[in-house]
C-alpha cells in the first residue's frame, strides 16, 4: 500500500509534470471506483491543472476550483505515460480503473489509476472541498507535522496496541503497515506495547523514529519516477516483508505475526527483549 512517502512523491511528480496542462478527457473503466457524481468529471474538461496535494495517504489534483482525489488503497497505483493512447478503455478489462488525458487524447501525456488483485478498493472523488471526502475529514494530524508533545498528546490514554494505534489514520495520518514496522524497529518498541503507557524515553524514541524514517523515505522517494517508487520503497526496508532474514542491526531472525489479511514483521531481540510475539496462524497450527 502506498504510504506517506510514496504519496508525497507522487504528488511532487504530478506538480512537476501535470500542473499547467489542461484536462482533455477522463475515461472510467471501473464504475465502482467513482464515489461522487456531482459535479461530473466533464466539469474538468478544458481546465488546467493548478496543483497536486497529499492528505495523509490521499492524493489529489487541483483543477480550477475542483479537486480530483484518489485513495490508492492496498493494490492501487498511478502509472504515468508521456503519450497515452486515445482508444477508450473497455469497462471491466485489465487493471486500469481510471485514465486522465492531459491534453488532446492521443497526442498528450496523462496517467492511469490502476489496481491489481480481486479486492477492488481504489476510490476516486471529485469535490470542491477536500474535506468532503469522508476519509480526509476524519484524518488525524499528519505524521510529519507532529512534535514530541503532539505525539504524546495523541497517544495519551490510548489502550490500543502501539502498532494498531499509529496506523489508525484518525490518530496519525500517513503511516501504514510497512513504515510502522520500520518505525517501531528503529525505536526498539514492541508492536504490542500499550500506546498510552509509553515512558517519556520511549515516547522520545518513537518520535525520533517516526520523523527520521519518514523523512528519509520521502527524501529517497521524491524525484523518482512513478514507475520506480515501489522498488525504491522495498530497497529501504529493514524488517518489513523480510521474514526469516537477519535483522540488519543485531543479526537475529526477523519474525512475523500474521492476521487474516495482512502481517507485520519485527525483531524480537531489538524490540521485545527476545520474547516471540503470539502469532494466531502458528497457534492454530499447533492445536
TrEMBL record:
Residues of the FPG-type domain: 238-272
Enzyme Commission number(s): 3.2.2.23
Recorded GO MF terms: 8-oxo-7,8-dihydroguanine DNA N-glycosylase activity; damaged DNA binding; DNA-(apurinic or apyrimidinic site) endonuclease activity; lyase activity; zinc ion binding
Keywords (A to Z) from UniProt: DNA damage, DNA repair, DNA-binding, Glycosidase, Hydrolase, Lyase, Metal-binding, Multifunctional enzyme, Zinc, Zinc-finger
Superkingdom of the organism of origin: Bacteria
Cofactor: Zn(2+)
Catalytic activity: Hydrolysis of DNA containing ring-opened 7-methylguanine residues, releasing 2,6-diamino-4-hydroxy-5-(N-methyl)formamidopyrimidine
GO-annotated biological processes: base-excision repair
UniProt domain Formamidopyrimidine-DNA glycosylase catalytic: residue ranges: 2-79
Coiled-coil regions listed in the entry: none
Top EC class of this enzyme: hydrolase
Pfam families registered for this protein in UniProt: Fapy_DNA_glyco (PF01149), H2TH (PF06831), zf-FPG_IleRS (PF06827)
PROSITE patterns on file: FPG_CAT, ZF_FPG_2
Membership in a protein family: Belongs to the FPG family.
Stored PANTHER family: FORMAMIDOPYRIMIDINE-DNA GLYCOSYLASE
Name of the protein in its database record: Formamidopyrimidine-DNA glycosylase
Species, as recorded: Mycolicibacterium chitae
Amino acid at each position: 500500500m502506498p504510504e506517506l512517502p510514496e504519496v508525497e512523491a507522487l504528488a511532487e511528480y504530478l506538480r512537476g509534470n501535470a500542473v499547467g496542462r489542461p484536462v482533455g478527457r477522463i475515461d472510467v473503466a471501473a464504475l465502482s471506483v467513482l464515489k461522487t457524481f456531482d459535479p461530473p468529471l466533464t466539469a474538468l474538461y478544458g481546465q488546467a491543472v493548478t496543483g497536486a496535494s497529499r492528505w495523509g495517504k490521499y492524493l489529489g489534483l487541483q483543477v480550477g476550483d475542483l479537486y480530483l482525489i484518489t485513495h490508492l488503497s492496498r493494490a492501487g497505483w498511478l502509472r504515468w505515460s508521456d503519450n497515452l493512447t486515445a482508444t477508450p478503455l473497455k469497462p471491466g478489462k485489465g487493471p486500469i480503473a481510471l485514465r486522465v488525458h492531459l491534453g488532446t487524447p492521443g497526442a498528450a501525456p496523462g496517467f492511469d489509476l490502476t489496481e491489481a488483485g480481486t479486492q477492488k478498493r481504489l476510490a476516486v472523488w471529485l469535490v470542491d472541498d477536500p474535506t468532503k471526502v469522508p476519509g480526509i475529514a476524519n484524518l488525524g494530524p499528519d505524521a510529519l507535522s507532529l512534535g514530541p508533545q503532539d505525539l504524546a498528546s495523541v497517544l495519551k490514554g490510548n489502550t490500543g496496541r502501539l502498532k494498531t494505534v499509529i496506523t489508525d489514520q484518525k490518530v496519525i495520518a500517513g503511516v501504514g503497515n510497512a513504515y510502522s514496522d520500520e518505525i517501531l524497529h528503529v525505536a526498539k518498541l514492541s508492536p504490542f506495547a500499550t500506546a498510552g503507557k509509553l515512558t517519556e524515553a520511549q515516547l522520545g524514541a518513537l518520535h525520533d523514529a517516526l520523523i527520521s524514517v519518514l523523512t528519509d523515505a520521502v527524501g529517497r522517494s521524491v524525484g523518482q519516477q512513478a514507475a520506480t517508487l515501489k522498488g525504491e520503497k522495498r530497497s529501504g526496508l529493514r524488517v518489513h516483508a523480510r521474514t526469516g532474514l537477519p535483522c540488519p542491526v543485531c543479526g537475529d531472525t526477523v519474525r512475523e505475526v500474521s492476521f487474516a489479511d495482512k502481517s507485520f514483521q519485527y525483531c524480537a531481540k531489538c524490540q521485545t527483549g527476545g520474547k516471540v510475539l503470539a502469532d494466531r496462524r502458528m497457534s492454530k497450527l499447533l492445536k
